[in-house]
Amino acid sequence: MKTKISALHIPHNKNTASMNAVAISAPAEVLLPMNMHGGAPAVPVVAVGDYVRVGQMIAKEEGRNSVPVHATISGTVTAVEEMKISGATTTVIRIAGDGKMEKDPTLAPKNPENLDEFLTILRDSGIVGLGGAAFPLWAKLDAARKNHIKTVLVNGAECEPYITSDHRTMVENADLVVRGVQILKKFLDSEEFVIGIEDNKPDAIAKLKELFKDMPYVNVKPLKAVYPQGAKQVLLYNAAGLVAKEGQRLASLGVIIINVTTLAKMALYLDTGMPLVDKIVTVDGAAIAEPKNLIVPIGTPIQNLVDECGGLKGDVGKIIIGGPMMGKTTDSLESPVIKACNALLVFDEASSKALEPSACIHCGRCVEACPLNLNPTAYSKAMEIEDEELRYQILTEENVSMCMACGCCAYVCPAHKPLVTTNNQAKSFVRKMKAAKEPKKEGAK
Ligand code: SF4
Ligand code: SF4
């Protein structure tokens, strides 16, 4: 790791930063995929014809690292079916809404007395990391408990262009951020909490500084507004001065990182019993008529979000779920908002044109731009080697598994090489080779 981490000054385009999040009207239908989290997909416990209410569990967790799924609108289950979403086939529960948004009457505040109870309760919340990873929160905290967590890093950086959903959470739900810190302080007994926020959110910084002024263990830390300030390794270094080696778990350094909206949702769940059923989603991009921050029931088709924003203007060139640097493209406005979705960006054709890649000119800009000092050109070259063992050796030596797909290398490449795609292919190749080698190691013992 470099002692000074590279970062890009890219246009922020935080057009919705000052816009309060507004709740959309109750959708006529939601589609709830069972694979919205890391770990095994949840298993439906409802059948066609069942009436469900907001917050009611409709699918239970399956094995470790899995979490349940809850109804996000009230209405009737119309299908439990297989469906292809973003290229992967998964089971989906469809609910036809009755427009009432009736809450499950059994929901009640939670009062865990110790860490075991807290984690068991938290699992039922369906909460996952909302910064993009979607790893179940309870499992992250459970894995970390073997170590004393001295420092909790709360990620409020939100460095991706356009996205302002965490920003609005910090401004509009600051009380929940405070409650989240108090809850984790009680159960993890951590010595310090560092809330890292990019300095392009002065209102959020001021509000949280004021609310935490009597809690000396909380440091609301402004960070430079550069990309990718919110990436795990970058935040760890810039907010806590620490470096994790390849494969090293943060907990072994006495640290965990929690996204600020995840923390707020956790507090809401303990204080009201309402599991993860909705999200603030930033809707923006050149093809969106009126960009907004919307409060959206999970499972709402993204077409509804477009409609709430005055529809589209011009031709649609690219639809991105998430930010322009790390988000995923989709070709269907019928795709549902999933738990990890914090933005919907729609661009017109003119601003979506991919530039033709040309030959590498060996300028080294990709290496200079990489926050982790990785060498994307080495990955591209290695992926052309036919000998798989040699390819594996080079990619491993060049630490390809560290690549966090932040896109800085591709952004600066004058030859417009699809470096992130190649890096991802290289990571996938290394994972498969490692998995193939593991049984051999065991057998050799
Ligand atoms: S995508 Fe990977 S190689 Fe490229 S800059 Fe980001 S971390 Fe470095
Ligand atoms: S930035 Fe692009 S052109 Fe320059 S060395 Fe890297 S891959 Fe080659």
Q: Identify low-pLDDT runs.
A: 441-445
Which compounds are bound in this model?
iron/sulfur cluster
**What is the percentage of strand-forming residues?**
15-25%
- Give the % helix: 25-40%
Give the overall form.
globular
Please give the CATH architecture of the domain at 115-272.
3-Layer(aba) Sandwich
Taking the sheet with the most strands, its summary is: 6 strands, mixed
Topology as a string of helices (H) and strands (E):
EEEEEEEEHHEHHEHEHEHEEHEEEHHHHH
* The CATH H-level homologous superfamily of the domain at 115-272: NADH-ubiquinone oxidoreductase 51kDa subunit
CATH class of the domain at 115-272: Alpha Beta
Distance between the termini: 34 Å
